User: Fold this.
Amino acid sequence: MTSGFLNAIASYYYKNAKNELSDYCFVFPSQRAGIFFTNYLRQLVDEPSWAPQILTVNDFFGSLTKQIVADNITLLFTLHQVYNQVSGKNISFDEFLPWGDMFLGDFDDIDKYLVDVDQLFSNLISFKELDDDYSHLNEKQLEAIKTFWGAFKAEQLSSHQSYFLENWEHIPKVYKAFKEKLTEQSLAYDGIVYREIADKIKQEEHLEIKWKKVVFVGLNALTPAERKLMDRLRKQKTADFFWDYSPWMEKTDNDILQTRGPGLFLNENRLRYPSPKDFSLPLNEEGPDITITAVANPTEQLKSVHSFLKKEYESDLKTAVVLADETMLMPALHGIPGNVDRVNVTMGYPLNNTPVFGLVNLLFEMQRNARKSKEGVWLYHRHVLPILQHQYISLLAEDDCRTLHKKLVKENIIFVKARDLQINPLFKLLFGKVNNGSELASYLTDILTKIYELLQPEEDKLLEQEFVFALHKSIVRLQDLLEQNQQDDLQPETWIKLYKKLADFQTVPFKGEPLAGLQVMGILETRALDFDKLIILDLNEGVFPKTSAPNTFIPATLRAGFELPTIELQDTIFSYYFFRLIHRAKKVELLYSTGAQGMKSNEMSRFLYQLRYEFNAQIKSQTSSGNVSLLSPPVPVARKTKAIMERLEQYKAGHEKFLSPSALSVYIECPMRFYYQKIAGIKEPDEITEEADARIFGLIFHDVVENLYKTHIGKEVEAATIEGWIKNKKLIDGLIREGFNTHLTDYEKGKSTFTEIHGKNVMVFEVIRRYLLQFLKLEKARSPFTIVDLERKVQHCYSSNELKLNIGGFIDRLENKDGILRVMDYKTGTGDPTISSINDLFDTDKHKKNKATFQTLLYSLILEETGDSSPVQPGVIWVRDVFKKSYDTQLFLKEGKSKNPIILQPVRDEFKAGLNSLFEELYNPDIPFQPVDNVDKCRYCVYKTLCNR
Assistant:
């Protein structure tokens, strides 16, 4: 980069002040610019010599004062105390925190821009004696104040306006008291230091500057305080000034570019603080070779990064990857090709994007919802399971995580005792409860220390260790600050907010050589630097420049009137950074995404439009597209191999397993689903159920009815008995509650402190009771009947041609009425009690609505073939239909225009023929398992992804 801006300045001073450089101070917009400048200077030096002082602007101002710039947390606590004293209120720190952030930002701006706080926060609601009291305001400021207060009419103030006005009037007092408090402690924020230096200059006090000359390099938008200092040094002839710009930024006929373009401050700076006359600014007269590339989505940019670096990468600091959106750092690093031997990441990785930060957030959520009782600490399963599944925890305690997860799901534990989770040293630290901020800090640091220790043996986990270490350091620092400010007894919620605020500004530094290899950096790190080859990512509107205004108490009209920074100024500054960066390069590729994602726009940045239409640059446009081919997903087929046929053998006579009516229904509806369930053994993942869904509703209903009837097995049930149940509310409610405890158990079969029915389950409880009472009324109407058995297990070796197969299952209820044995099944779902023909029971497309008839008819056949000589009738208790006038438990077969109740004996032969065909197909080795043709039937199937449906 022999023609670079910093290199030119280094050459200039080595030539003109070689022996005096140790007495010089160079002030840069960033530390990185200073590092690069020092490197260029070092390359020129041919003998040992003292280096000049290298500072940023803030550091330079800090060198002129004895005050110490305090950290943000200390400033917030001090401001909170002052606000309560001035306002006479007692607002908690938790409530004050968001206000405090805005106060600090506004106070810093007020001081750096030397605004009179009384003028800015003037209440002109009455406009009394305006000319006398505000004659010192300029016309622009006065108009801004009038515009803002025009909406406030003294006689028509709303409650919100009155509250706002009250707080508004406190601000000047808070500002002054806050500064006095900090002065007593010899503390400050940056703005105080700036105003102190400016006031000393205004009062013509001496500034103790220990350098022979101060050189300001590559600055742009100057605050009034900075201008005052630079004016003083210029008059004393102890300062030089160097401005970096391109020919694009100089005077233009475009009014918009004059007022909001990248060169907004350029003309004033060059006129007010001219560079040495004998310095020649290196300019790229030809302009760079620029390509604007549109990609489908942000991650597609990585292909362009890979391609660009593969072709254009050169060593020795000549190439840079610049990220407008710094959250893209990790993906961008994955796009770097193998020919790049060294990479220097200048920006660090945001701490709040790391996996360990996500783990700590999960722990916060668990702590917020932890409960304490006499039995100990209880934790909610929805907060425990994500911690067990976190990548660090599952890596470091894989077996224990799997064991606990399986136990919680299998036993449907909703609230779990913390001590039952503490099965290893790490889990003892994780699963507990804290009471205040100090305990929370110790809790987190102990966990992070343990994780760091456990990660040590993993050689490929160095990055994770860095993440853990950085977060640990951040927490320790926060706790130290709280103890210094005597705030170590904060509530956990307030501590968490402070921690997140501190983490927002923390990054994990990457180890690397800052002066070698490919540079990966954010926009701010590029200030004053030059590169030959550049690729810049995420140049979308809303990302670069950002369109969100900063939080502030000062409305935009007043900010503009008092020349405080506004969002327009922010756009101008970033416009300068962008155009300054690219103008001296040889080859530039600018990427933006055409696909909107979340809050990101799919429109390219206004700077790219400006580059294309306003500046004389050679620009090519292209769209990055990959080869996309649409392939029909393969239809899965499971051929009946020898191994699969052996699995089917387990249902034959002589083996223990049997084919249930439900399993056969699965095969009829979809042979592939039968294969996944019964042959491959792929089960639907279990989940913890805490609300009574349709399945739980059916189970509870079934259990209550079974418990009512089980004492009457072998007995006739009369109407009076059922009437007694209906009137016994305590009995019914007790049985329903027992059902909830059985199927929604929390811990030790419902003995937990937190198993009381609540939330939606209260409504479900009432619905179950109403359905039960209505069902019992219908039962009473059809009594008397005899309960033969409940939940009877039936099993039969069925002969189908040459096959002998075990079939069987559990019959919900067997009853005898009018000399007919009835096979009854409870169904809470939907179905059709009427079939058009027996063949419909074996039709894939019609089976689902006729499933109940198939299952009860198969049970009826098993009963007959196992020796029961009574006429057998299948029946279904349709729980959903108990309030219908047409309620009936019989099943029907259409015969012409009429329909008749189904009895096994008349339809036995036709049903057995269909059953035999079904078994013959199932055991035919030449007929594979495959999905059904109708894709709509796969919509709610848990295996649809396996079938590419």
